[in-house]
Amino acid sequence: MIHGRAVEKRYGTRRALRPLDLDLARGGFLVVTGPNGSGKTTLLRLVAGLAAPSGGSLEVEADRGALGYLGHEPLLYRDLTALENLDLYGRLYRVPERRERIGMLLERYGLWDVRAERVGSYSRGMTQRVALCRALLHQPELLVLDEPFTALDDEGAALLDRQLAELAGAATLLVTTHDPKRVEPLASATLALA
Amino acid sequence: MRYFGDVAALARKDLRLELRARDTLPAMLLFVLSTLVVFHFALPTGADEVAAQGLLWVALVFTALLGLARAWAPEREGGALEGLVLAPSDRSAIWLGKSAAVFVFLGLIELVALPAFALFFSPLQAEGIAGALLANVGICAVGTLLAAMAAASRTRELILPLLFLPLAIPLVVGGVGASVSTEPGRYLVFLGLYDAVFAILCWASFEYVVSE
Amino acid sequence: MLAALSAALVGLAIVLSFWVAPEDADQGISQKIFYFHVPIALTAYACFGWGAWKALRLLWKGGDGYDLESYVAIHQGTIFGALTLATGSIWAKASWGHWWVWDSNQLVLFLVLFLFYSAYFMLRFSIEEGPRRANVSAVYALFGVALIPVSFFAIRLAEDFIHPTTFTRDGPQMTGTMFLAFCVSWLAITLLAYTLYRVELLGKRLDGNLRELREALS
């Protein structure tokens, strides 16, 4: 699903990602590890299509509607409620039976009670959960998750574990994490950036 | 038709955000009224009506700038712009939705500012109001795109006026002309032309402003 | 070699303009600046147009070279634009006794464009280097060429209520030798601009290569 050859990214003279090769088949689960500044976030942004590589070639066989992305920022409107945020994205992603799907996700991630409150008033952990819902909303074929366990409490992390276990094999996953042991059992491959 | 559904959803989102936060509109309102009062003191006695008409346009352009500076703020705060860019919808819909919302805001401001101007200085003709509406379209279309450019820059609020003012000059000419000239039709046509040319340019190029 | 040719042509233009072409009946010696002012203005337009073309290519095809070419072209255009304003100002002072006149549509247009393209540089240097900066600069460059005709019409329309025109737009009537001097001058200025463009482009490319080399070594 993803084929990359000598993919690199630079901003002027600043090199954000050293050239690397990348292969991920459909249904695979690739875990990317590496120290800060090694380019994990850059790589995921390249795959998601938020940036274009400066060199090499990168082929991602998923169009925008089939790709779900979770980054460092929640990609939400702080002054809208969780419900309103997800409704907007649901429209833009043409999610069928939008209301039901949103309700299901919010309930699953323990956000049903706060669904009508501004996202700006949420704790970091709750915001991360809504961001996760946003990434999963349209049942993407390719999920690109940048340190998804950030800020999640034990309960949230357990929910994410369950979700990842369900998705492994059904969808293609590309995940970075500082805690590889957590996802290793599910992973089909790992990639360590220097 | 999906496209216009997206545009409508995005514009509604902006209206809802402003309704909730209520920070930009009141500020713009107060600004335009204060500016008109300043102009009263800035015009020496005996200054003709025509000069006052010109100043109305100065007030409108700078009030628009005030609003435009904050146009993309909600998208910046939570990183939502990337979320919109990732969506399968057309990127130009993001620009169109935002412009439409800004148009509504500016229109609401003018609903107060134009009568205020008529009260403080001199009444406006129908052509002047038509000119204001047409110029609005240009201000919103170009201003929204330039504000997105400015958001990519380090100097954000500082650079938006620099980018906007040269492009606003033809609009001011059109607007003032429609108000004071004996042949307002020419100016209205010109404003329409400006709107058409720049709206198309904005619509086609917004994709590149937000992508890397 | 290009530089030598440019220098020679500019020299020829100066000689032709000042010594060979006859003096204009009305304006006298001050009219001579016309031989440079108009070609400089035309060259500035050409530079902006070239910059916009390169910008369009950048957005259309992508690829490395176009951003730099667009930037250098616009840089040259701005320099020649500033020269247009300067020579125009000199002409105005010599002809009507004021350093600046709003009557000249061409001058006013250049003032607006000068403001616009100055903002181009402020924009460009406030964005981090990368595809974003290239894209945004390119879009702005396209807005520039759209602005040229629109501003021109706006300024024409504004005459209605700003200032009635007090002189005709066309330059003085030109005799044969005057026309020759004008054409030589135009060619010279264009060649000069092209030379400067190539020189600056080369310089910037060398800079870029040097930086890349330094990066690779460190």
Task: Offer a few descriptive terms.
heterotrimer; B: 212 residues; mainly alpha; 9 helices; 0% strand; C: 218 residues
Please provide a written account of the structure.
The complex is a heterotrimer of chains A (194), B (212) and C (218). Chain A is an alpha/beta fold and 194 residues long. Chain A is 32% helix and 26% strand. A 5-stranded parallel sheet of chain A has the order 5-6-7-3-8, sandwiched between helices. In chain A, strands 2-1-4 form a 3-stranded antiparallel sheet, covered by helices on one side. In chain A, helix 2 crosses helix 3. Chain A starts with a strand and ends with a strand. Chain B is mainly α and 212 residues long. Helices cover 86% and strands 0% of the residues of chain B. Chain B starts with a helix and ends with a helix. Chain C has 6 helices and no strands. In chain C, helix 3 packs antiparallel against helix 6. Chain C starts with a helix and ends with a helix. About 3% of the residues of chain C have low confidence. Chains in contact: A-B, A-C, B-C. At the A-B interface, helix 2 of A face helix 1, helix 4 and helix 5 of B.
Which helices and strands appear, and what pairs or packs with what?
The complex is a heterotrimer of chains A (194), B (212) and C (218).
Chain A: E1 2-11, E2 14-24, E3 29-33, H1 40-48, E4 55-60, E5 67-70, H2 82-92, H3 98-108, H4 124-136, E6 142-146, H5 154-167, E7 172-176, H6 180-183, E8 189-192
Parallel strand pairs in A: 3-7, 3-8, 5-6, 6-7
Antiparallel strand pairs in A: 1-2, 1-4
Helix pairs in contact in A: 2-3
Chain B: H1 2-21, H2 24-42, H3 49-69, H4 73-78, H5 80-86, H6 91-120, H7 126-152, H8 156-180, H9 184-210
Helix pairs in contact in B: 1-6, 2-3, 2-6, 3-6, 3-7, 3-8, 6-7, 6-9, 7-8, 7-9, 8-9
Chain C: H1 2-20, H2 34-61, H3 65-96, H4 105-125, H5 131-158, H6 176-217
